[in-house]
Amino acid sequence: MQHNQTVIVLDFGGQYKELIARRVRECGVYSIIKPGDTPVEELLSLAPIGMITTGGPSSVYSDDSPKCSPELFKSGVPILGICYGFQLMSYLLGGKVESCDVSEYGQTQTVIDPESALFKGLETEQTALMSHTDFVAELPEGFVNIGKTADCPNAAIENPEMKLYGVQFHPEVEHTPNGKKIIHNFLYNICGAAGDYSMDDYIDRQVKAIREQVGNEKVILGLSGGVDSSVAAALISKAIGENLTCIFVDHGFMRKNEAIEVRDAFKNMPLNMVMVDASERFLTKLKGIDDPETKRKIIGAEFVEVFKEQAMLCGDAKYLAQGTIYPDVIESGNKKAATIKSHHNVGGLPEKLGFTGLVEPLRGLFKDEVRTVGRKLGLPDYLVDRQPFPGPGLAIRVIGDLTREKLDILREADAILREEIIKSGEKASQYFAVLTNVRSVGVMGDGRTYDYTAALRAVVTNDFMTCEYAPLSHELLSRISVRITNEVKGINRVVYDITGKPPATIEWE
Asked: Where does residue 241 fall: left (phi above 0), alpha (psi -120 to 50 degrees), or beta otherwise?
């Protein structure tokens, strides 16, 4: 349920669509993402105060390139075209788009007209990120130039009467230092935004929406201890209190003390918590299995069975809650809400459980917004700032077959790694230990050992689609290695993974 002013981001295949939508929200305006070919009537039915058309990899003059109706640009709704979106607007309104003699990539000095409402408050010379092989060679009728670079004569254009603006560069990225100001100008100077979107407002609206949807009925949520399910639990608890039951299935693959931390995080909240220790059950199912995909499938299927059994014990619950967030909705192509995510977040549950509806209070939020909501609801930092953690947990960070001994060894090594990185203050987006199935000879005291090798993984990334290894100091790595080999029985060698993504993935399995 959403009654804020709305800006629509029209996606034409660009990699930054979510970033654009997030930048709009950072400016206090609600945004949603729609496919670029969404019918104009459908878009206008949402009463947007503005639209932004994204970049994309295609050339507008190609027959198979994504396009929208030219009527979109005659609707009277303010539109900001970015990169391909700018070229498409120009092309459909009668301008000419051609291949560049000199393509532009990276940060580029750009001269803009500060008299334009789009650039109000900015200096004439700006640094902007360019990434294009086509350019607008001739402007559509009624447009004027408001920006240029050494190799791109039409880096920005406008038609104030039609409320149409276009920029060849990417204002949404950090490499355009004043890009957020440009987006802010579009929203407030051109669209007339009121700035009525905030996380406090979102919480209040969702609490009301949950109460209206659920009434006095009971709700069940599969609590993984991850950011999304934890924040969903806190928000639903705020709305309906003890009519919420959270089922936490400990499959035995959690990190050190994680189950205890999850329990403690919610001990003062008015909800029912069911903690299920199913570790022996999962280990039995996985005995002798070393293929990572087989591990994932077994764990996912067994989780469903455990959750199903527990849910049936709460037979009067009418609603199932999930921590679905906006990127999940986008990636699934805006499929109907009844699509249930896989793995530990109550994935793939049979319809025969008898739920009459889904409660998804985070469905409209990006991950950074979810974390903000979590903080406002009083969740501890160790949950709100929790790193990505795979549904199968440590089961896919132990290479090869699983035993309780191996999992305990990895838990201790991983805890030392995380403790030392946090204490050091050195920066990494995600970090964890892996217990390899490599054993090697070592010497401890006067004795020979033949123990496991632990691999440390720490990466830096903005989106987790790609990453580079984190350049942790040798001093820190040495301290971690010494502690692990001294304190964790079963490990006598520690290595550091310095591979990026690609060619590797962040996880090992």
From this structure: left
Per-residue pLDDT reduced to its tens digit, 254-294: 999 999 999 999 999 999 999 999 999 999 999 999 999 99
Q: How far apart are CA 474 and CA 484, in angstroms?
A: 15
Helix (H) or strand (E) holding 249: strand 244-250
Q: Are 507 and 497 in contact (CB under 8 A)?
A: no
Task: Please tell me which residue in 104, 172, 360, 369 is annotated as part of the active site.
Answer: 172
Which of 132, 170, 251, 344 is flagged as catalytic?
A: 170
pLDDT for 372-431, tens place per residue? 999 999 999 989 998 888 889 999 999 999 999 999 999 999 999 999 999 999 999 999
Looking at the predicted structure, is the pLDDT value of residue 14 above 90? no
Going by C-alpha positions, the residue among 100, 78, 99, 101 that lies closest to residue 89 is 78
CB atoms within 10 A of CB 64: 7
Catalytic annotation on 83? yes
Burial 338-347 (b: 16+ CB within 10 A, else e): eebbebbbbb
Amino acid at 501: K
* DSSP result, 437-481: EEEEEEEETTEEEEEEEEEEEEEE-SSSSSBEE----HHHHHHHH
pLDDT band, very low/low/confident/very high, at 77 (cuts 50, 70, 90): very high
Marked catalytic residue, from 27, 83, 191, 246: 83
- Out of 85-94, 203-212, 290-299, 460-469, pick the least confident: 460-469
68 noted as active-site residue:
no
Decide if 52 contacts 80 (C-beta within 8 A): yes
Residue 149 structure tokens: 């670079």
Say if residue 502 is preceded by a cis peptide, omega within 30 of 0. Answer: yes
Contacts (Cβ under 8 Å, ≥6 apart) of 8: 31, 32, 33, 34, 43, 46, 48, 50, 51, 52
Strand segments, DSSP code E, in 68-213 are: 79-82, 96-112, 125-138, 144-148, 156-159, 164-167
In SS3 terms, 319-363 reads as: EEECCCCHHHHHHCCCCCCCCCCCCCCCCCCCHHHCCCEEECCCC
H helical segments located in 173-226: 179-185, 199-214
Q: Who contacts 24 (Cβ-Cβ below 8 Å, separation ≥6)?
A: 7, 9, 30, 31, 52, 183, 187
Which residues contact residue 334 at a Cβ distance below 8 angstroms, ignoring those fewer than 6 apart? none
Helix segments in 138-198, DSSP class H = 179-185
443 contact partners, CB below 8 Å, separation of at least 6: 449
